[in-house]
Amino acid sequence: MANERHSSPTSLSPEENMFVDVLHEAPLYGHRKPAIVLGSILYCFLLASYAVIAVAAPWVFGSIQGIIPSLLCSCSAALLIITGIFQQYLVYEVQKVRLQGYYIFSQKLKHIVRLPFATVAYGTALMLLVVIWHPHIGILSISTWLRIIMFVEVLCAGSFMSMYIGYVHQYNTLNSEPDVLKSLYSALQPSSSLEELRYHDGGRLSDQQMALLQYQRENIHYLSEEILRLQECLSKYERTNDGSTPQVDLAHLLAARDQELRALSAEMNQVQSELRLARNLIAERDTEVQRIRTTNNQYVEENERLRAILGEWSARAAKLERALEMERISNLELQKKIAKLRSHSASTEQNRD
């Protein structure tokens, strides 16, 4: 169906092409802008040059062997700065993919675009450690260590950039509707079994709803521009006095655009209400968790108090046991003394007799 809509404008005249209808489900789908990979390719060439410098450093800087480590560290620092600037460009490209409605692709690319800078940063830090600790290691020369680190750094960063270019190529050749429309239930789509579980994962769902809101905002902006363009065309046709009638019912197109705009506005309002409901649900869960934590703290305090009371009673019982033991020992000694006195008195009486 989408291919038929894309192929139908080729059979119309240039004048009619101005009023070709767009997809009702996603107006921006027919006008999706491909992601640019030229910057990524240039960065890959930069990595290749960096690898060539790392491999051929002894021959390129043969006349200045003493400052090769300093030059290699300087190249690594320069690559780190360039990669940091390039990362901002990649983040901008990923944001454009997100605004086009491809949330899943943007999530994949978001994790990849930060890896080259992290790789170069770790490599630079490792080179710094090698420069500092090399006098205590001495297995290889310092330039050899630095060249190995640079080469591994280029391999890792190049693999990440290859993954990014592959994903971007897949995105550019993709021929399906934006996945953000499939992730949530909305007024423009039939309900599914996920409708009852829409608040199961609050954080991720809120992010998806925000992506859907941004995409619908872009759709509304596009439709507003389309309505203005059609109004200008309508006014131009109304000013003509040659008696010719337009080949396209402009009023009908304007009404259709206005209806789409209202539908998108209604859907955006619904998604905003769902987002507020999800946030309220998350706040309720946070309040409940806080209440449970407070109750748990009270139980812990009560447990500590009972433990203290139990310890005090245990100490008292131990004191009583010690006192009882001492009393028993004193009684035994007293009984021994009484027995001795009795035996002594008995012996004295026998002597008298």
Automatic annotation (TrEMBL):
**Stated family:** Belongs to the TMEM192 family.
Q: Which UniProt keywords apply?
A: Coiled coil, Membrane, Transmembrane, Transmembrane helix
Asked whether the keyword Isomerase is assigned, the reply is: no
Species this protein is from:
Stephania yunnanensis
Give any Pfam family that matches.
Answer: TMEM192
User: What membrane topology does the UniProt entry give?
Assistant: Multi-pass membrane protein
Q: What is this protein called?
A: Uncharacterized protein
Report the locations given in the UniProt record: Membrane
The regions listed as transmembrane in this protein's record are: 35-61, 67-91, 112-133, 145-167
An example of a Gene Ontology cellular component annotation for this protein is: late endosome
InterPro entries from the xrefs?
TMEM192
Coiled-coil region(s) at which residues? 254-337
